[in-house]
């Protein structure tokens, strides 16, 4: 029987319920993480848990666990569910309380929930690439927080799905920010360009790995804003996240990216990413 973690208890999936007035449910008042498991190893676990704690701090949510305690809780869930290759979703909400926008006083205990999923790496898509579509970024101005409020992201992804694309690349006016659930890179003349880390994007852990791989390989990694026109003229485009890794975009708004094939810099980053997985798990 698959278990779900609810506040330190591993409960059967069908019994895993949360209170109707949980603030995550009522206000989207909470944060989350999604972590990959490769060969029984929780990939970049520390970086993800540190980001979870940062998100908590940024929304004034008191979490009683540190990185080691979170690691232990999640490890137990993964072992119980025998996850060899897959992922784990973790969310923390400000807890259950009568509905009132302001934080509950006195404060209530945060609710933590985690569930697992077993699946293989997206080998076929990594080799062939995906289609992406561009759309205005209508999200709030604290995209650096991995918040449960994902309506802007949900609408962007649904728009992509409707037009047979696998990801929506968002832009604020002329400036490309990030995907609905991924970071975005334009590659031009052998150099990588990606939005700098600030409140307009989520600082991806995969992005950090790609940066380190690029630096190892001597590929310039420019953390600079770039325009939609620049993206449309790119030789190669990549989107990245924990679940899609280093994913090539071969069509943008129905037009070929470069020659419409997965490019050489992308392949080189994918190779470096694979090596990073092998040496860090
Ligand atoms: C989670 C997320 C990413 C990717 O972050 P990873 O740590 O690489 O998984 C990028 N953008 C948004 C909006 C996200 O929610």
Automatic annotation (TrEMBL):
InterPro entries: Aminotrans_IV, Aminotrans_IV_CS, Aminotransferase-like, BCAT-like_C, BCAT-like_N, Class-IV_PLP-Dep_Aminotrnsfr, D_amino_transT. It catalyses: D-alanine + 2-oxoglutarate = D-glutamate + pyruvate. Its cofactor is pyridoxal 5'-phosphate. One of its GO terms (molecular function) is D-alanine-2-oxoglutarate aminotransferase activity. One of its GO terms (cellular component) is cytosol. Keywords: Aminotransferase, Pyridoxal phosphate, Transferase. This is D-alanine aminotransferase.
């Amino acid at each position: 029987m698959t278990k779900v973690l609810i506040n330190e208890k591993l409960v059967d999936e069908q019994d895993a319920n949360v209170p109707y007035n949980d603030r995550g449910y009522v206000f989207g008042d909470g944060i989350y993480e999604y972590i990959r498991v490769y060969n029984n190893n929780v990939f970049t676990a520390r970086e993800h848990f540190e980001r979870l704690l940062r998100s908590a701090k940024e929304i004034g949510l008191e979490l009683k666990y540190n990185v080691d305690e979170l690691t232990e809780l999640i490890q137990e869930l993964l072992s119980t569910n025998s996850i060899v290759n897959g992922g784990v979703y973790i969310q923390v909400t400000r807890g259950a309380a009568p509905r009132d926008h302001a934080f509950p006083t006195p404060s209530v205990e945060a609710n933590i929930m985690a569930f697992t999923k077993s699946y293989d790496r997206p080998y076929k898509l990594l080799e062939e690439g995906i289609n992406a579509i561009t759309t205005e970024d209508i999200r709030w101005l604290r995209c650096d927080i991995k918040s449960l409020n994902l309506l802007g992201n949900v609408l962007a992804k649904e728009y992509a799905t409707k037009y047979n694309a696998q990801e929506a690349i968002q832009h604020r006016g002329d400036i490309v920010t990030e995907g609905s659930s991924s970071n975005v890179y334009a590659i031009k003349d052998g150099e990588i360009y990606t939005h700098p880390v600030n409140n307009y994007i989520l600082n991806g852990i995969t992005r950090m790995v790609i940066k380190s791989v690029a630096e190892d390989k001597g590929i310039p990694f420019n953390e600079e804003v770039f325009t939609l026109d620049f993206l449309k003229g790119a030789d190669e485009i990549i989107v990245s996240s924990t679940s899609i890794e280093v994913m090539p975009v071969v069509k943008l708004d129905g037009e070929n990216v470069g020659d419409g094939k997965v490019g050489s810099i992308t392949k080189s980053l994918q190779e470096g990413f694979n090596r990073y997985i092998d040496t860090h798990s």
